[in-house]
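I'd like us to work through together how a protein chain folds, taking it slowly. To get us started, please write out a protein record for me. Go ahead whenever you are ready, and we will take it from there:
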Amino acid sequence: MKRFEIYNPLMSAIRKQIFKKVQLSNNSFVIQIKDVLDYEQPTKYIVNETEYSCDKSLTPVLTANKAFILGYTSETDGIYSKGKCIILDDFTLDCKIVDFPFKVKSSAIKILTQKSGISLRFMYEYLKYLELDTTEHKRHYIAEIEPKEITIPECGIDKIADTFELIDNKIDIATHILLQYQLQKSYLLQQMFI
């Protein structure tokens, strides 16, 4: 389901509020991103055929930008199915959290997984909080993102991750309800003018 852009500023404000408190806390420590996340080159998961299907029963082909799912492929080799991960576009620095098997279109995607006991969801939200952005078309992850120092709370990481999960679920429900109202409105307007 496509989420409405109106929720992005809300999520951004919530992230800022939570992670500012984490940074100001006396019960936190500083660590580099490379100590928390492992990355994997996506070479073995790149789709061979660029003609995608619309059949949602096939394997999705992903990109980290707004499009996210480019289409679906019937290819059965080289499917990433190791569990939850973050995909990050090394050029645009867009990222998404993924919890289903997939293939990717490009080698510019970095596949990030949990290295330590720090929640992957927490790290995804932290990356979003950092508002990584670039105007340069180059690879950024290894040289610029991995060595970045971040502040981690000594406790409460799972609580923060769960909070974001709950907010995301609420947004998904609100998006679904809004879509249903739009469909109903469209139907009723059509019926008025028959």
Summary: The mean pLDDT is 89.
